[in-house]
Amino acid sequence: MAKLKDTAKKTLTIKVTPDLYERVRLAREAAREEGKVYNVSESVAEFLERDMKRVYKELGKTPPKKTSENQPDMFSNEKPKKTSNNKSIRGTN
Fold first, then answer.
1. Which terminus of the chain, N or C, has fewer Cβ atoms within 10 Å?
2. How much is the pTM?
């Protein structure tokens, strides 16, 4: 099954040193040789999420709510998250 493109995401362009760029390129190439995928976007997004939490905490601000995290992914194989009263967020419990 083909992977569906997430149209809700935006592009973020960053500048990196030539050395870092080359290391990322080599890591991707090595992963492909082993039949794997090294997804830089996922790694950077995870880092930015952690950094944004730190920045908001440091500024004493409340981060905005993320709507995509609350909505179940219909293509995900993950089990639905449980709430504190042991009911599924999807309501299928």
1. N
2. 0.53
